[in-house]
Design a protein that fits this description.
alpha/beta; Arc Repressor Mutant, subunit A; Tex N-terminal region-like; Nucleotidyltransferase, domain 5; 5-stranded mixed sheet; 5-stranded mixed beta barrel; 29 helices; 47% helix; globular
């Protein structure tokens, strides 16, 4: 069975069965996707994380199918209905849908109309009628009239027989496949407003009278309609043309003409809208929802990755401000490692005196703590606070950066924040989060539920289990791609390292607090419960600066240290020299170091790491400068060209922060002067862009933007 699965998954993912077998074996041994992708390239043929995850997911689906197959076989056996033919059909079913179609006639049911008809002894009559070989069904029905059994007339007998036939039709595998195909080809999703809900459900007004082919409905529209239905404002249905469905069923079940097939026709006309149509509709609706979920999860994961991988400013002493009007601005000072040094509250703008005092407080803090950069949250009063800060006599060319604060309030009230800062209130914690995001977005954002970061598409409407799994996988991928400095990492960041998890992360922090910084990767083996397997999976992704062995600060795995030592020995130098000098590395012939467990892909990775040990794959930091004189939505006018930063990319466009406390939407039709199929082909989260304002609706807080070069620009007075 495993070999069959390997062949199936190979076809699904476009790799060889041998690669699938290798990946399956590694996964069975407990290896993680990042570890396999980075350190087992020889075994998999250098498959990347996306392909590896696809193989894993397809293997999991087949395992689930096998589990269900065994449960069905057991049920059929217990019912004493398992024939060789039925067993063969169950064992050869390639999909869950096909498997459930086979099992449907034998699945335990509630007491249906057909079940009651069987209790009255009418199944033989149904079989006679279904064969359509009797000239007068009414005459045959006379023999089944039995007042004691509740069959008081010929019509009662015929009605019961039709109920049984209707159920047979509903459970017929061929009929279900035929109608399912019709739904997929010609099914139309129709949405209408619930009577009396027009005013309350106005945000769904686009769907008050809407229809489109279900096969082509975009995921975001499907999820919007489902949300409207769940909230009680919309009614949804998915139907193909009923006359086509009936014509297909007639061809499938009706034989000839005359009186014989009449009861079968009547059974079809009753059973299709009552049983078969709603049953297939439920399936198609679920499939449409799953497709929409897949689309939303893909969008969310892509945006989350781009957000987590945003360029870090790097270790700097930062003054961070969480802006506010009435309650003032919360100011914190952080050292280059993110440690809280001081905090204060300032009240710029409330009066001349308070503004002067606020400015003096900021300048005093800058001098006292040797501040190198200023981070300002981009929420309420953010632009006004930025203007105030830029108006001060800041030393040198100190960068002042607006930082996306989405989720900061979630963090500040979380158990993680309370544990970090038990003696500080949520306002101080929120400001600390803003400052740390500037220094290293990834290290700080891992402390927040990814669903709260604000880069999703209908994330509250998708399957929450799948969402959590997908987002966790995305975070894991980002953390392991960047690598983690084990002596400064938070418990939350360590949790996402390959092979670590929450318990080991907690143990690592405890060991570090008790014994001081780790001096080597090997020293981590002393952490309680961090055994050989966990060390193997994690070591390559952990960095230890200033270690005795310089390779401990690189992505070279300890299992390959001996290769680097051998290279250095062959050149008559030290490992540190090999890492420092390009001329030495150029003298290495990789062919001399190829072995059974170490092939060319691993050797090439080693050489790349020796050239740039512990390199950060993220791009260089660059701050965006918003228009200084445009701070509110009311100041916008059509035609303005403004600098902005992409905050979210969906399937229908991109949202852009232009510094007015409300993101604008660049619809997919306004992203380019050429056809755009996927907005992600044009922009990504955190990308700097120039946009033109098309329309502004301050009351509804809606801004329409364009990135097209031919968008009309307005003249802005000097």
């Amino acid at each position: 069975m495993l070999q069959t699965h390997d062949l199936t998954v190979a076809k699904q993912t476009g790799v060889t069965p041998q690669q699938v077998e290798a990946v399956r074996a590694l996964l069975d041994q407990g290896a993680t996707i990042p570890f396999i992708a980075r350190y087992r390239k020889e075994k998999t043929g250098s498959l990347d994380e996306v392909v590896l995850a696809g193989i894993r997911d397809n293997l999991a689906r087949l395992a689930e199918l096998d589990s269900r197959r065994q449960a069905i076989l057991k049920s059929l056996e217990e019912q004493n209905v398992l024939t060789a033919e039925l067993q063969s059909a169950v064992e050869s079913a390639a999909t869950m849908t096909a498997l459930e179609d086979i099992y449907l006639p034998y699945r335990p049911k509630r007491r249906t109309r057909a079940a009651m008809a069987r209790e009255k002894g009418l199944e033989p009559l149904a079989a006679l009628i279904m064969a359509q070989e009797i000239a007068d069904p009414s005459h045959e029905a006379l023999a089944f009239v039995n007042g004691e059994k509740g069959v008081g007339s010929v019509e009662d007998a015929l009605a019961g027989a039709r109920d049984i036939i209707a159920e047979w039709v509903n459970e017929d595998t061929g009929a279900r496949q035929t109608i399912r195909g019709l739904f997929n080809r010609e099914g139309v999703i129709q949405s209408s407003v619930v009577k009396g809900k027009e005013a309350d459900g106005v945000k769904y007004s686009n769907y008050f009278d809407w229809q489109e082919p279900v096969a082509r409905v975009p995921g975001h529209r499907m999820l919007a309609m489902l949300r409207g239905e769940n909230e009680g404002f919309l009614k949804l249905s998915i139907r193909p043309p009923q006359e086509k469905a009936m014509a297909l069923l007639h061809r499938h079940f009706v034989k000839g003409a005359g009186a014989a097939p009449v009861p079968v026709v009547l059974a079809l006309e009753d059973g299709y809208p009552r049983l078969l149509e709603p049953s297939i509709e439920t399936e198609i609706r679920q499939q449409a929802k799953e497709r929409a979920d897949d689309e939303a999860l893909r969008v969310f994961a892509r945006n989350l990755r781009e957000t987590l991988m945003a360029p870090p400013m790097g270790p700097r002493a930062v003054l961070a401000i969480d802006p506010g009007y009435r309650t003032g601005c919360k100011v914190v000072c952080l050292d280059p490692q993110g440690k809280l040094l001081a905090h204060a509250v300032i009240y710029p703008g409330q009066s001349t005196a308070s503004t002067r005092e606020a400015g003096q407080t900021v300048l005093d803090l800058i001098r006292k703590f040797n501040i190198e950069a200023i981070a300002i949250g981009n929420g309420t009063a953010g632009r006004e606070t930025e203007e105030f800060i830029r108006g001060l006599s800041l030393p040198g060319k100190m960068p002042v950066v607006m930082v996306n604060e989405s989720g900061a309030s979630i963090y500040s009230a979380s158990a993680v924040a309370r544990e970090e800062f038990p003696d500080q209130d949520i306002t101080v914690r929120g400001a600390v989060s803003i400052g740390r995001r500037l220094v290293d977005p990834l290290a700080e954002l891992v402390k927040i539920d990814p669903r709260s970061i604000g880069v999703g598409q209908y994330q509250h409407d998708v399957d929450q289990g799948r969402l959590k799994s997908k987002l966790d996988e995305t975070v894991v991928g980002c953390v392991n791609e960047v690598g983690v400095k084990v002596n400064t990492a938070s418990q939350q960041l360590l949790t996402y390292v390959s092979g670590i998890g929450p318990t080991l992360a907690k143990n690592i922090i405890a060991h570090r607090n008790e014994n001081g910084p780790f001096r080597s990767r090997a020293a981590m083996k002393k952490v309680p419960r961090l055994g050989p397997k966990a060390f193997e999976l994690a070591a390559g992704f952990l960095r230890i600066d200033n270690a005795e062995n310089p390779l401990d600060a690189s992505a070279v795995h300890p299992e390959s240290y001996h290769i680097v030592v051998r290279m250095a020995g062959d050149l008559g130098c030290k490992v540190a020299d090999l890492m420092r000098r390009d001329d030495l590395r150029r003298r290495i012939d990789l062919e001399n170091y190829i072995g059974e467990e170490c092939g060319l892909p691993t050797l090439q990775d080693i050489m790349a790491e020796l050239a740039r040990p512990g390199r950060d794959p993220r791009q260089q930091f660059e701050a965006v400068a918003f228009a200084a004189d445009i701070r509110t939505i009311e100041q916008l006018t059509p035609g303005m060209k403004l600098a902005g930063i992409v905050t979210n990319v969906t399937n229908f466009g991109a949202f852009v922060d232009i510094g007015v406390h409300q993101d604008g939407l660049v619809h997919i039709s306004q992203m380019s002067d050429r056809f755009v199929k996927d907005p992600a082909d044009v922009v990504s989260v955190n990308q700097r862009v120039t946009v033109t304002v098309l329309t502004v609706d301050p009351e509804r807080k809606r801004i329409s933007l364009s990135m097209r070069p031919d968008a009309p620009a307005a003249h802005r007075p000097p």
